[in-house]
Amino acid sequence: MTARTKPPSLIGGYKPLRIKPMVPDVPPVTKALNRSSPLASLLQRLKASQNCLDAVKACLPPALAAAVKAGPFDEAGWTILAANAAVSAKLRQLQPRLAQALADQGLKVNAIRVRVQK
To answer: What share of the chain is helix, strand, coil (3-state, %, to 5)?
Structure first.
């Protein structure tokens, strides 16, 4: 057998070494966020914001619900992000209903802010 007919791994009678790339042991993002208290606080606020969005989307028409996203959550309140000015105007009209939906889910929000997402 010539070198051309042998499988590439056996050329010269040696098998090539398989070197694994050096990759550090990277923890999952949630584990890393929980290790640091400021980052854990950020993770809690992100979860609270998503919970607020889930509660609000349940009481919105499907077309309107598709045009909103969760915004920042802090001590002053929660921001809901609207896709455009028309959605923003409708959300402002629905603020009492949104506040009631949050209260029904047991979510304490001091104020609901509506912003147009850029």
So the answer is: 50, 15, 35
